[in-house]
Design brief:
- By secondary structure, the protein is of the alpha+beta class.
- It folds into two domains: 57 residues, no CATH class; 54 residues.
- Helices cover 32% and strands 21% of the residues.
- The termini are far apart.
Length: 144
Amino acid sequence: MYKTIIAEDGQKYKLVPVDETEPTLAQQKKKWEPKGGEWYVNMEWLVFRYESSSEFKSFGVEYCTKELAEKARDAMRIHNLLLSRKMEECPNEGDYTMYRHDNRWKCSHLSWSCMYPDTILFTSEVAEKICEELNDPELNFISI
């Protein structure tokens, strides 16, 4: 394969052979995928050792150590509980989210410029209700 370049004098074009072993830009870009491992978080939130599989790995539930799997399990549980609450109470709307500050849950109108890929948005009423529940130790459905 050849490519065209401008000669040093700027006037002429030369055909120069292209090294086909050199990766193209498309070949250099690679989508990140989880590494996976022998530790798996199942649908019952149990962490156990299991042979790695492409299905589990691509879904992001495999980890290289038990400790990482347990940490991920806790984060998944919180995220999934909040997602479930959103789907039950305001599935098609919302621009408020919750965050933790000084060991208290607070809700805030979300600026689109600082939205994360896993941000779950609620209506202001639902977000305020969830914050009240999270800050009440007797009602706290998510232990953190």
